[in-house]
């Protein structure tokens, strides 16, 4: 392994950082390249970290736990129409996760904690001031040319992951990848303000047509240190400098905070994009995060989805790099994460269509729904103030063994976790004596057995160098089978990213072997 070239990570934002750390977790060296001279911690940016992303980060030296401790936990999302509260959503956990539903922290805070972990990781080398201006690849690897302060320099790697974010057009152009979609014309104002707003620090608040922003929306998110992130929908010709000079910005904030003192920490105005790359794999290069997809922030599906891209790309690259899986396994990165991005675009696109109706008919429909939702539960279900981030389900993946006993239900009810089925992220559960299920799963391919399964027969299976472990779930914790819903005659196969790959009933060892091999692309025949 020491003679193999490292994997190149293009971009040192949180998606690039996470990709490098997950590759190091699997024993793969990386070189992280970024054109900026150093980190630029400006503004709150991507603030909402979802439970399952915190869980994934916790694999990387307990970063998830550190972010949870440093950030602000919130448990519910409240939606208002004018002066009335329409509904409040709380977020269920199908298992016993140690993490809350959501933690808010500035992107710069997240990056700082990931930087600390990277600094302690000998398998990661970070090179600031390396802007990728050319890229070539062949059967042996990838070579990029970087513009640096001392002139052009070339860096060689075995594979590359483009994590260059929303401004990754140059890298996409080098790969011949397009980012198709649309940009919304509507403008939004964002401010981070420091103020004491009482119990608002425990919840997300979304307002339709409040008296203090008539005809438009306002979103309020709590952040650490009595700071609140506020998003206003504003007219297309809004000028933030003129608004501040005229006193309009102060009046706008006063309509929320009243006469309480406040401080503006950061402010910006921006438009939203809904775009997706035509392919997430270009030869030996994978695209992740904003380099591959852009969505509106109403739902916090940008960074959260980018982290899931990172983990998916990293374990597959690692297994290929280490000779444990064929290179065709990388094709499934596009299959799975393009589908996930398409789901995010569908969800956030529907939200934006509801928030910003495009014609009089849509305006009338939205108004009718909001009025009915004051007293009608069925109308409340049609109010879209942003469906918050959730892990995607890989039921249609070529790595998944379908189960007629446990069909995947697709998108769950708002606030609920999906039922256990092949393709979903397995619910978590602690172990007796320490540890937990998802940390175990992220060591390789994991086989979990019910009480009536012949454990000895499965333990005799051999998989060469492939990291496969077999466990009776009740021995890890006696309550786990009941909490997670593992039946006595079932065998579950769990992928290295903790997604269920198969739920097999009364399975012979040969059937379990086929499902395990399918996970790493060695057997993609239908085994349902």
Question: What is this entry, summarized?
Answer:
With 528 residues, the protein is an alpha+beta fold.
Molecular structure report:
The chain has 528 residues and is an alpha+beta fold. Helix content is 30%, strand content 25%. It is built from 16 helices and 26 strands. The strands form 6 sheets. The protein has a 7-stranded mixed β-sheet with strand order 6-5-15-16-17-14-18. The longest helix has 25 residues.
- Helix share, percent: 25-40%
The main pleated sheet reads as: 7 strands, mixed
**Averaged pLDDT:** 94
Question: Please, how many helices?
Answer: 16
Strand content: 25-35%
The CA-CA distance between the termini, in Å, is 36 Å
Alpha-beta content class: alpha+beta
Global shape: globular
Primary descriptors:
globular, alpha+beta, 528 residues, seven-stranded mixed sheet, six-stranded mixed sheet
Write the layout of secondary structure elements.
Elements: E1 7-10, H1 14-25, E2 30-33, E3 48-50, H2 51-58, H3 63-70, E4 72-74, E5 76-81, E6 84-90, E7 102-104, H4 107-119, E8 124-127, E9 131-138, E10 141-147, E11 153-157, E12 160-162, H5 169-175, E13 179-183, E14 187-194, E15 203-208, E16 217-223, E17 227-234, H6 240-245, H7 248-257, E18 263-270, E19 273-277, E20 281-282, E21 285-287, E22 293-294, H8 303-321, H9 331-355, H10 360-373, H11 377-380, H12 437-441, E23 445-449, H13 455-459, E24 468-472, H14 473-476, H15 480-484, E25 490-494, E26 500-505, H16 509-519
